[in-house]
Amino acid sequence: MQELAVALAFSVGACAGGGWWSLRRWSQARHLLDTPTSKIRSAAQGYAEFYGVLEELPEARICGPLSGKPCLWWRFKIEEYHSDGKKSSWRVLERGTSEAWLRLVDATGECLINPAGAEVRPMIREVWKGNLRHPRGPAQGGLLGWLSSGKEYRYTEERLQAGQPLYAIGDFRTSGGGRQGLDLAAAQGEVIREWKRNFAGLLQRFDSDGNGQLDEPEWNRLRLAAQLEAEDRHRQHSVLPAQNHLGKPAEAQPFILSNAGEDELARRFYWQAAGGALLCLAGALATAWLLGIKQF
């Protein structure tokens, strides 16, 4: 009975997981194909798709943590081989992902990308093995080297490099350059909240009768001063050069950075959706069969 319950749990899990994966990949493929490709300079604010070339940021000098090769972004994994004579497996010891921003350039402009939360699919993926936990670490000698000589490690490193093509889809925003409108009420409220953090200074500026509180005329003068301050800050911000940013959408929309193009990605996602649907169907059939056995 216990074995039947375990098998039933696996079949239900396969059905649910396969269905979820199929719907997710199908939805992502539709988002990719239904979102038009934009040029950076003329792109509308919000969810957008771009093709361009990766270029270095002037202040960024990044190398892959395992290979030491120069790159713009990396992801790595270190695994250790385990075997007890009956079964063997690779156990993950370390993994990590770069948090460095990326610079995407097309014929019309450039966009800075925050890769946090993105599904990144690099063209470069290197896998190799060694007998040191970290491939760039110093060689171990003496007793410690002898004890660790029998261990085997596998290293995986993925990288994005300058000059590579990049397909990017995510939430696009532009600041500065006169692109942002002024929500005067919100900006005024932000200025007042900022001034309230130094309430003594606020009283010194607007408490004209010195009674330690702000009456209606004084509040009116404060609001007018905050409005003028908000308008002045907006004017100063508008003359700054426009800066474009791409990041993770607030809604459940795909955020993808890939060296492969839209058509190739959509094709892969459709195949993965089909695989998930087959797993869901197999799980459903297995569940029905196991429930039939249980009744008998």
Automatic annotation (TrEMBL):
Its main location: membrane. The keyword Oxidoreductase does not apply. Its EC number is 2.3.2.27. The chain crosses the membrane at residues 269-291. Signal peptide: none annotated. PROSITE patterns: EF_HAND_1 (PS00018). Keywords: Membrane, Metal-binding, Transferase, Transmembrane, Transmembrane helix, Ubl conjugation pathway, Zinc, Zinc-finger. It holds the Pfam family GIDE. It is found in: Membrane. It catalyses: S-ubiquitinyl-[E2 ubiquitin-conjugating enzyme]-L-cysteine + [acceptor protein]-L-lysine = [E2 ubiquitin-conjugating enzyme]-L-cysteine + N(6)-ubiquitinyl-[acceptor protein]-L-lysine. Residues 83-178 form the E3 Ubiquitin ligase MUL1-like domain. It is a multi-pass membrane protein. InterPro entries: EF_Hand_1_Ca_BS (IPR018247), MUL1-like (IPR022170). This is RING-type E3 ubiquitin transferase. It comes from Zestomonas insulae.
